[in-house]
Amino acid sequence: MSRRVLVTGAMGCLGAWTVKHLLERGHRPVAFDLSTDKRRLEALMPPDQLAAVTFVRGDLTDGAQVRQVMQEEGVEAVVHLAALQVPFCRANPPLGARVNVEGTVHVFEAVKDLGLGHLAYASSIAVYGPASDYPPGLVSDSAPKVPRTFYGVTKLANEGTARLYWQDHGVSSIALRPYTVYGVGRDQGVTSEPTVAMAAAARGEDATISFGGRMQLQWASDVAQQFIDAALASWGAADGAPSFAVERGAHVFDLGGPVVEIAEVARLIEQARPGVKVTVGDGRLPFPAGFDDSALRKAAPRVYETPLEEGVRRTVEAFAGLASGDDN
Description:
Helix content: 40-55%
Radius of gyration: 19 Å
Number of helices: 12
Distance between the termini: 27 Å
CATH architecture: 3-Layer(aba) Sandwich
């Protein structure tokens, strides 16, 4: 059944992939973003497909506008992805709070007022502390949340907001916490370097990833599909929507997958583009190596998990097509 779906942060990497997959599933996305830069969307789909998207230049800090757009566009479901990332929150914490926290409250408030009853939104593994805070192995989703960045603090605040909107107003939600997202369109943020290296390799250029170590990587296409399922979630309904094996509530799930060495990512990039050299630096990111996604696997009707080798190959091929002018 075709749905009218609001995607906040639609000009970002995950937003663009979400719009793409919504169209492919036969839904009608409303792309809500303060930016008007469509380059990530244009890298993923041809003009005739983009023509089916409703674009709204919107500001999350304006609660009245958020509600008005959702009402006027007949929005039936929400994928809330918009946020200022780590470096931008660090540079301007008040703005980070207004966009990430107050903006999320505005989305929940509109969902409540318009009677939608449910939404999906993006949290982050940044709600956790550094690896030194946890024992070896995959970090459990019940582990203490002790973020060391202002961005992580805003994401943890949003999880609390979601819990209270369920408690006080019966608005259910599903949040996902991605880790290292890679793919076409991932060109900013702390963990974007593997994707930047893939883009360089696609142009035939050597590249360097400044950090090594072990972590989980998730292909942007898979993450976007997981968000769509979360937004369109049903609980035993027979309308074709993804049926989650949990009761309605304020749910938060870590995204997981295999823990891999960044050196292996570099090898896969070189394999996808023979003749290119990808160097891995000595730096280390402070994050734990991996997070336990067993809760998501028990609850979700499907977990999207393209093998890393395939995801890297397809990403490099897509970048090569863009570099040659064969956009799609």
